[in-house]
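Milestone M4 deliverable, item 7.
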Amino acid sequence: MKTIGLTGGIGMGKSAAAQWLQSSGIAVVDTDDLARAVVEPGQPALDEIKDAFGGGVIGSDGRLRRDELARAVFPDAAARKKLEAILHPRIHDLWSVQFDIWRAENKPLAVVIIPLLFETGAGKEFDAVVCVACSAVTQRDRLRLRGWTDDEIRSRIAAQMPVTQKMERSNHVAWSEGDLEVLHRQLMRIIISIEPKQKTCMIGGQG
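Output delivered:
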């Protein structure tokens, strides 16, 4: 099984890429989904987060208040590292197990979406790394459409490795500046170059 790590800056099109890959029949796991799973009520990570950041980050329903946690960690590098030490090992274990399952099922190709792929040192674990990127102007416009303030945008972007460095370290770059069809065609070429057997699947996924 060939493995791909897909990364990129926040708001740069990773989710759109993941949706297309899945619709094309490729096995995909998104670490954003795993990050939500590991902090569900009853999970050890949630208790550790409460101990580290206080009861204010837990709502009356016992669930994590993501907005409060974000306000606590994104402006503070030390707080981010504390949170990452709680979450990242658990997230890594989950997608590693999923890869093992797919290998046993003889999947030809599997992709994991990891926003902080290089920051966590995971790049070496994949046959190839793909970075989805766009211009800084487009990135900010997309994040404003999510309702984020300029201060929130600055702090979130500052918390990640510059996308130019991610592009330099990746094996492939998919530019998401244009419409989705342009992004899809780039992804198709990249996937075929990594795993030629996927050509039939990818073309079939396009109808």
